[in-house]
Amino acid sequence: MADQCSPGAIRPLSPGCATGEAVALVLVAVLWGSTGPFLRTGAAGLEEVRHQGRLQQLLAEIRFLGLNYKYMVPFLLNQGGSVLFYLTLASADLSLAVPLCNSLALIVTLVTGRILGEDIGGKRAVAGMLLTVLGVTLCVAGS
To answer: What is the pTM of this model?
Structure first.
């Protein structure tokens, strides 16, 4: 007998599956949101990479980023979040998964950026986060 929480299984929404999907989607949002500010920090100095010719410039930029652990670690974590998102979409409700991940990722990005000392926009950013939380709550409650 197939596992009811396995991808592609036809099943009613059971609490165990929904909880696992919700945890996975929140983890995706954390991975996506928290890595953005670190990617910006890790890419610092890319503007100074100069080579003649478009192909040489592209290869030099790829080399700069690829050999920079401050960029590659957050990049790989971000891509891990994308893989987890893709795997979770096999069983999650798409109308909830996308807004949940994207809106929570925005909030995590703002919080992480603030922790790292970035200017996040003051009171308007906080108001935006509160409205985002309200919107996600309404989406989850309505489904």
So the answer is: 0.76
